[in-house]
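Sequence dictates fold. Below is an illustrative record:

_____
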Amino acid sequence: MAEVFPFRALRYNPHKVQLPSVVTQPYDKINPQMQERYYNESPYNFVRVVLGKRQETDNDQDNVYTRAAAALRNWRAEGALLCDAQPAIYSYTQVFKSPENPTIDLERRGFIALGQVEDYDQKVVFRHEQTLTKPKADRLNLLRSTEAHCEQIFMLYDDPASEIDKALRPECPPAVEVSDEYGVVHRMWVICDAKVIALVQQKMADKKLLIADGHHRYETALNYRNEMRRGSNVDRSAPYEHMMMTFINMDAPGLVILPTHRVVFGLENFSIFDMVVKLRERFEIEDIGEIKDVNQALERLRKAGTTKTALLAVTAHSGFLLRSRSAIVTLKGFAGMSERKQALDVVQLHKVVLEDALGMSEEDIRNQKHLKYVRDAHEAIEEVRNGAHVAFLMNPVRMEQVRDIAFAGEVLPQKSTDFYPKLLSGLTVYSLEEAAVGSATGGH
């Protein structure tokens, strides 16, 4: 099933750079303000690789992708990036506080290694979200130019006994320790012990992998692999057949999924009362008045969602708690969809509320026409106070729901999951060129 491999990572040289000034959040979480801050922190900041600034003078010879490749080359030449001497896997932990319960320290454990890039029909790697063409084209151009996987994708595997985590608990101090801008402490150990690596490979061999974060980058790796394959003789050991992944046990503590709330705006003739009337057939609706205490409202939503679908619709001056009725209502939008998927809060919201009651099309939702995704509930409510029609506050999808739906071959609507915290970018780089050299000399 899952094949994992050690590799010789490119890593920042701590004698040349200060790690806190060069690592970043993943490319798709970097807004323009963050990008500017990263640029100012260090000339070696990793943002220049994963999300460089575009220029009006960009052309085929000089653009964000060619500048990213040049940055990697120059940093290596200057000794800011060094290649590890031996193939390794990298034990990786994150200590953090969940935004939903900031009083408790949590720890998420995993390891960074190469994973075999597999077609979905092989039933080894499973997705849980659809992807969009534009982000994949962007990442493919970056991969072509740099010939490197610069960010890990977040892979989940099933290990109820935590056998792999137990094998990867080094007693020495970490090789890397750095805190990010959200207060998350990232630690990494370099594991070169051949016996430990073999044990991890053996334990992973019967696992199925579920993409938590990084669907676009995974499918980019698939597209790149297909480009690079020549003829019918497939060499599964070729560098482009692998990509850098962080593997995390879905059964372990410390796995946090946050909700992503929805804000609706710009519809013609929107009326919250008309919407409520249309939804009464499918939801029990409780008018809870103006939302003054957001945390209290979220707790009420959480309790309502313990046994059935629950949503909280919020306008500038009112709040309505929606709880699904026990009977499943036939809806055109549910055609071909399993009852397991129909029961998801996010599916009920998209199909019953946004499409059926508010008249938005699937294309509208996919293109975020009249729809905005907001991670923070306070920000979502502020949006309606500033003129948006309505915010829908959500409970997070549960890990077992994501697992069961993905392994059954179904996918969730976009922005259904927000795994927290994000993996830090800039800890390791997988250079395909370095891997090819290593393969020629007997290493990976």
User: Anything to note?
Assistant: The mean pLDDT is 93. The chain has two domains: 4-256+421-440, 260-395. The CA atoms of residues 282 and 325 lie 6 Å apart.
